[in-house]
């Protein structure tokens, strides 16, 4: 023992390194063991769903999974197959996996949509937006059918596998454990609780519309945020560095535009999920004969009141148009999107600090900003305007656009605890 202690004391550098490696290795193995326990418990819960008896005349539920293998730096496929796929298969669903890593597949996606009971999007925010675009932009002839297929009552599940998963903040509790987060999202699909989410339809002058579930950003913070990855070698300082160096390019940074918008719209009552039973044949015949012999009087068309558009000239460091999906209120009586026009009078220090905050919450509306609630808006840009929009973290060329709110158009599966929190918060 004395010789061992002496050897360790004489080679203290190697000893320290060995202890560090052993500690790291033990912690890594313990983490893997905990992840395996989570997977086993989730599979047992999924098996309980799969063991439920169903009538022989009822077909298996068909789920179409849109998987983006490139998400999470190429790790998405492995994450899905290890953590989500076993749960889906054990639940007794008929699962079809479609990889969204090649172009020209919109027609195939549309065909799959005709025979599916639920959609599952496995990836990040970009994957959600990509699937919506593929389904809506197959070609001009199929556009109406595609939009009808997407914006139907088919529920959608979201399995967060990407680098940015904004939707998961609304649908699932926060967790620093990626395996737990994926498993919890997959189990939420089996439990069947859903919430309705708004969608933004963003249309340029000649382009096909783009659909967003989070929102649109245009401005200096977005432009600087895109360049953060270029400063990877600065480690934790890369975000501040990207915003600091962007102030050298141009200062003050302003965006000039004209905005027209309509206010919130009143929310119509919820449509019943179940249709009323069809009346007997003799009742239907009687109604048709009555309409034939005594048709209703022709209604005099009423003049439609012109829409009351508000106009605004703006100068801003950043403009944000966002859905209310982040602050979901299931009991609100009006439908609207949030337009945030940030003041263009900020110091360089404020710009760097606020830019760091916006990396965590891109659509935050800082104090001193002009906030507008609107159901529809038109953004006019000066001729020759350059730069890009960020739409659900995807880059698009900046151009004049019309943004229209499509309230409660998508129904997403969510964790039952999150739905309970939303209802509880609304009552308070």
TrEMBL record:
**Which biological process terms from the Gene Ontology are attached to this UniProt entry?**
ceramide biosynthetic process; glycerolipid metabolic process; sphingosine biosynthetic process
Q: Which reaction does it catalyse?
A: an N-acylsphing-4-enine + ATP = an N-acylsphing-4-enine 1-phosphate + ADP + H(+); N-(hexanoyl)sphing-4-enine + ATP = N-hexanoylsphing-4-enine 1-phosphate + ADP + H(+); 1-(9Z-octadecenoyl)-sn-glycerol + ATP = 1-(9Z-octadecenoyl)-sn-glycero-3-phosphate + ADP + H(+); a monoacylglycerol + ATP = a monoacyl-sn-glycero-3-phosphate + ADP + H(+)
Biological or metabolic pathway of the protein:
Lipid metabolism; glycerolipid metabolism
Superkingdom of origin organism:
Eukaryota
The cofactor required is: Mg(2+)
Q: Which membrane topology term applies here?
A: Peripheral membrane protein
Q: Which residues form the DAGKc domain?
A: 58-206
Name assigned to this protein: Acylglycerol kinase, mitochondrial
CDD domains xref list: GATase1 (cd01653)
Quote the EC number.
2.7.1.107, 2.7.1.138, 2.7.1.94
Q: Which UniProt keywords apply?
A: ATP-binding, Kinase, Lipid metabolism, Membrane, Mitochondrion, Mitochondrion inner membrane, Nucleotide-binding, Transferase
The record's annotation in Gene3D superfamilies points to:
Probable inorganic polyphosphate/atp-NAD kinase, domain 1
- Organism of origin is Piaya cayana
* Cellular component GO terms, alphabetical: mitochondrial inner membrane; mitochondrial intermembrane space
Question: Where does the UniProt annotation locate this protein?
Answer: Mitochondrion inner membrane; Mitochondrion intermembrane space
Enzyme class per UniProt: transferase
Q: Which family does it belong to?
A: Belongs to the AGK family.
User: Which Gene Ontology molecular function entries are recorded, alphabetically?
Assistant: acylglycerol kinase activity; ATP binding; ATP-dependent diacylglycerol kinase activity; ceramide kinase activity
InterPro entries (alphabetical) = AGK_C, ATP-NAD_kinase_N, Diacylglycerol_kinase_cat_dom, Lipid_Phosphate_FormReg, NAD/diacylglycerol_kinase_sf
């Amino acid at each position: 023992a004395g010789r061992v202690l002496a050897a360790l004391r004489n080679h203290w550098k190697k000893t320290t390194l060995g202890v560090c490696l052993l500690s790291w290795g033990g912690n890594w193995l313990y983490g893997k063991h905990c992840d395996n326990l989570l997977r086993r418990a989730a599979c047992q819960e999924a098996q309980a769903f799969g063991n439920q008896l169903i009538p022989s005349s009822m077909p298996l539920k068909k789920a179409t999974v849109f998987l983006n293998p490139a998400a999470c730096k190429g790790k998405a496929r492995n994450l899905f197959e290890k953590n989500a796929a076993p749960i889906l298969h054990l639940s007794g669903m008929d699962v079809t996996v479609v990889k969204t890593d090649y172009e020209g597949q919109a027609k195939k996606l549309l065909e799959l949509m005709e025979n599916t009971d639920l959609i599952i999007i496995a990836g990040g925010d970009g994957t959600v937006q990509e699937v919506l675009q593929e389904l809506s932009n197959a070609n001009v002839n199929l556009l109406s059918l595609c939009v009808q297929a997407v914006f139907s009552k088919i529920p959608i599940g979201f399995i967060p596998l990407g680098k940015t998963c904004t939707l998961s903040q609304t649908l699932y509790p926060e967790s620093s454990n990626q395996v737990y987060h994926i498993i919890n999202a997959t189990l939420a699909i089996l439990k069947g609780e859903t919430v309705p989410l708004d969608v933004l339809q963003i249309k340029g002058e000649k382009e096909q519309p783009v659909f967003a579930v989070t929102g649109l950003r245009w401005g200096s913070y977005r432009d600087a945020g895109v360049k953060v990855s270029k400063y990877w070698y600065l480690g934790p300082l890369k975000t501040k560095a990207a915003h600091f160096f962007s102030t050298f390019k141009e200062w003050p940074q302003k965006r000039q535009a004209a905005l027209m918008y309509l206010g919130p719209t009143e929310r119509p009552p919820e449509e019943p999920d179940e249709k009323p039973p069809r009346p007997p044949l003799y009742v239907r015949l009687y109604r048709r004969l009555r309409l034939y012999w005594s048709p209703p009087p022709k209604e005099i068309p009423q003049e439609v009141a012109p829409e009351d558009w508000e106009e605004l000239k703006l100068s801003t460091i950043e403009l944000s148009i966002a859905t209310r999906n982040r602050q979901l209120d299931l009991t609100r009586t009006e439908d609207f999107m949030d337009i945030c026009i940030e003041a263009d009078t900020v110091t360089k220090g404020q710009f760097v600090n606020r830019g760091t905050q916006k990396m965590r919450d891109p659509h935050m509306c800082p104090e001193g900003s002009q906030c507008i609630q609107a159901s529809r808006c038109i953004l006019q840009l000066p001729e020759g305007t350059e730069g890009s929009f960020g739409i659900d973290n995807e880059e698009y060329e900046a151009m004049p656009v019309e943004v229209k709110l499509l309230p409660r158009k998508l129904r997403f599966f969510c964790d039952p605890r999150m739905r309970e929190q939303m209802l509880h918060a609304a009552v308070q």
